[in-house]
Amino acid sequence: MKVLHVAESITGGVSTYLNLMDECLKSEGDIEAIYFVPLSQRDNLNVDSHKLYFHGGKRSVFGLFLFFYQLVLVLKKKDPDVVYAHSSFAGFFVSILKLFKRDLRMIYCPHGWAVFRKQSKLKMSFIRYVERILSLIPDKIVNISRFEHDETLKMGYGGNRLLITNTVTDCVTPACDFVKDTKTSSRPFKLLFVGRFDYQKGLDILIEALNSLNSSVINYELKVIGGGVLNNTRNVDMDSPWIHNLGWVNNSELDVHYQGADVLVVPSRWEGFGLVVLEAYKNSTPVLVSSCGALPSLVDEELTGYISDASVEGFVSSLKKLNLEKLSTMRPLCRNKYEVEFSVSEFKKLQIKVLNGIYDE
Question: How far apart are CA 42 and CA 302, in angstroms?
Fold first, then answer.
């Protein structure tokens, strides 16, 4: 079986997902995976070069037209048995193709339905209408979180829907006991943010909250890993001595940064899942997340982390409640939650099942 994965953009969660898929399925001799991804984001994929086909990755009218044209060429050249579309634009264009080519077998993973984004009620109603129609076209729809799986069902989204909960690969060296300076009250809390610098991810909310808290005494240090993607970059003022902006770092280096943090902060305005939370858990690091989207469903309050109102005031209040000694006691519970609830083997089993099922239909 030949599977073509199609993505208009992969920086962030989609690349993590594709890397995990490739790692899980490379041992399956009867499944050949190839990828159609943006050339500018090639370094985000840890897959063999012969599996890769590229497009320009420009989010403009011409760029999207070119994406569609190049996709048609790749489909003709490789003639895949299954097309696995990732995120909204890829899902839309592959769905258009399927309308004209009814024998095209298609799986769609939205990686976060657009209806859950912050927007006006009118725009939300229009997006819901469009997504409900598009949900009927793919042969299978893979939802990445229980939250989206249940909520879209309530909204009347149709199609052959199934839940395959997101996960991440384990550390090269499993997280172990951490020696943390929990008794020195004078040292700042070590906070970590990982993600894109756009409106969705809410980095501006976190920095504004910290500006307020650090106005007289620096009680919090923030390490920022990430950057802008496409045209979504949001200007965020990081010109402060307590902010360490590392930009995007290699995946092989991420575990060290998670393990060195007291807490990962996820101030997203909406989130279809939140893979960074699992990245933290696998490294035994507690989290502080916003109350938006699927994020609260990933956290056991005061056991593996905290849930904050998605506002500057909310994060000011939540950050004030942090306690180094309490955070240290949470670390084994975070690791246990990752091992028990987010099994890579279960993810692999379900992905193989859905691929084989659609191929045999």
Answer: 39
The model scores a pTM over 0.85: no
Query: What span, in angstroms and rounded, lies between the C-alpha atoms of 207 and 221?
Result: 11
Decide if 2-167+343-360 and 189-341 have a common fold.
yes
Residues contacting residue 226 through CB under 8 Å, at least 6 positions apart: 193, 194, 195, 196, 197, 201, 203, 247, 248
Contact 141, 159 (CB under 8 A): yes
In the block, tokens 């003709």 appear at 76
Mean per-residue pLDDT of the chain: 90
Tokens of 311: 């506002």
Q: Which of 227, 170, 145 is nearest to 193 (CA)?
A: 227
Residue pLDDT, tens place only, 112-164: 899 998 889 899 999 999 999 999 999 999 999 999 999 999 999 988 999 99
What CA–CA distance (Å, rounded) separates 345 from 318?
35
Class of domain 189-341: alpha beta
SS3 100: helix
- What is 252-265 written as a DSSP string? HHHHHHHHT-SEEE
Is it true that domain 2-167+343-360 has CATH number 3.20.20.100? no
Task: Give the integer Cα–Cα distance in Å for 340 and 336.
Answer: 6
Give CA–CA dist 111/352, Å, rounded: 18
Spans of all domains in the chain: 2-167+343-360, 189-341
- Residue 196, CA distances (Å) to 42, 70, 298, 317 in order: 17, 27, 20, 24
Q: Residue 68 carries which DSSP code?
A: H
Handedness of CA 7, 11, 16, 20 (dihedral sign): positive
